[in-house]
Design brief:
The chain is mainly β. Helices cover about 10% and strands about 45% of the residues. It is built from two helices and nine strands; from the N terminus they run E-E-E-E-H-E-E-E-E-E-H. A hairpin with a 2-residue loop joins strand 6 (about 65-70) and strand 7 (about 75-80). The chain is globular and about 30 Å long.
């Protein structure tokens, strides 16, 4: 379920291609343009809300990131599903619900 939504800032070449497994940083640095290693995300609510382990969906889920660590104005992530990101793409925060624990089969048979 989406908790919040924000938009990515400007990129040096207009867009960047993210590869699954790579590190990717979101931050509020106004002086640097985005590339395949970082992107500007000027929404303080995101950094206040996001926690390690949460997933971020970019561009309606075409790109998926897992948050590794969070600071007051940045989030370090790992790319789970790669793809192209560009200025104005939406970022949705997703809180994954823990899976319910299934009862062991032997207990069900008793």
């Amino acid at each position: 379920m989406p908790l919040s939504m924000a938009r990515l800032g400007r990129f040096a070449e207009g867009c960047a291609t993210l590869v699954a497994g790579d590190a990717f940083r979101l931050d509020m640095d106004h002086e640097l343009l985005g590339d395949e290693h970082r992107a500007p995300l000027f929404c303080q609510q995101v950094y206040d809300t996001v926690r390690a382990g949460m997933h971020l969906l970019i561009d309606s889920g075409r790109v998926r990131l897992r948050v590794i660590s969070v600071g007051p104005e940045h989030a370090e992530t790992r790319v789970l599903i790669g793809g192209t990101v560009a200025e104005g793409h939406t970022v949705h925060l997703l809180r994954l619900r823990p899976q319910r624990r299934l009862w062991p089969m032997r207990r069900l048979r008793q």
